[in-house]
């Protein structure tokens, strides 16, 4: 026997004796099922809406799970023609908060399927 070689080693032995076909076949089926569930969840996220309020409740933004702003509501008391910059800043902050909340929602939704495992091309 050559130095450094084990005489008892067999391909697939580390997979619990099931060989590569059994171990990998089962894993591939689980990955395929997970990918199908991810596609469904990603499609559903398009219609799942998150409402975010900002600026002390003066701005409400509705955004989809795909980070598409659906509506923006601004309390008229926030509109001051002499201070447009304040409104712009408040709106910018609100939109960014809504995007973050939507991303968090989508991430939690998809993690419930993957168990935290990242699949290439699925996130």
Detailed description of the structure:
It is a single chain. With 123 residues, the chain is α+β, with helices and mostly antiparallel strands. The chain has a domain of 85 residues: 2-Layer Sandwich (Ybab, Chain: A). Helix content is 47%, strand content 15%. It has two helices and three strands, in the order H-E-E-E-H. Strands 1-2-3 form a three-stranded antiparallel sheet, with helices on one face. A hairpin with a 4-residue loop joins strand 1 and strand 2. Helix 1 runs antiparallel to helix 2. It is elongated and about 85 Å long.
Please describe the topology of this protein.
Blueprint: H1 19-45, E1 49-54, E2 59-64, E3 69-74, H2 84-114
**What fold name stands as the CATH topology of one domain?**
Ybab, Chain: A
Mean pLDDT: 82
Percent range of helical residues: 40-55%
Major sheet: order of its strands?
1-2-3
CATH architecture of one domain: 2-Layer Sandwich
Low-confidence stretches: none
Rough outline: elongated
Assign the CATH class of one domain.
Alpha Beta
Estimated structural class: alpha+beta
For the sheet with most strands, the description reads: 3 strands, antiparallel
Terminus-to-terminus distance: 49 Å
CATH superfamily of one domain: Nucleoid-associated protein YbaB-like domain
**Total DSSP E strands:** 3
- DSSP summary: helix tally: 2
Indicate the proportion of strand residues: 5-15%
Keywords:
123 residues; 3-stranded antiparallel beta sheet; alpha+beta; Ybab, Chain: A
């Amino acid at each position: 026997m050559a130095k450094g070689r084990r005489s008892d080693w067999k391909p697939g032995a580390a997979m619990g004796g099931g060989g590569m076909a059994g171990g990998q076949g089962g894993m591939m089926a689980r990955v395929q099922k997970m990918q199908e569930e991810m596609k469904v969840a990603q499609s559903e996220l398009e219609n799942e809406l998150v409402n975010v309020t900002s600026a002390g409740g003066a701005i409400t933004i509705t955004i989809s799970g795909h980070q598409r702003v659906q509506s923006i509501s601004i309390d008229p008391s926030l509109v001051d023609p002499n201070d447009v910059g304040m409104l712009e800043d408040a709106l910018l902050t609100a939109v960014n908060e809504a995007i973050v909340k939507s991303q968090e929602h989508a991430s939690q939704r998809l993690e419930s399927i993957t168990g935290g495992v990242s699949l290439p091309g699925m996130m």
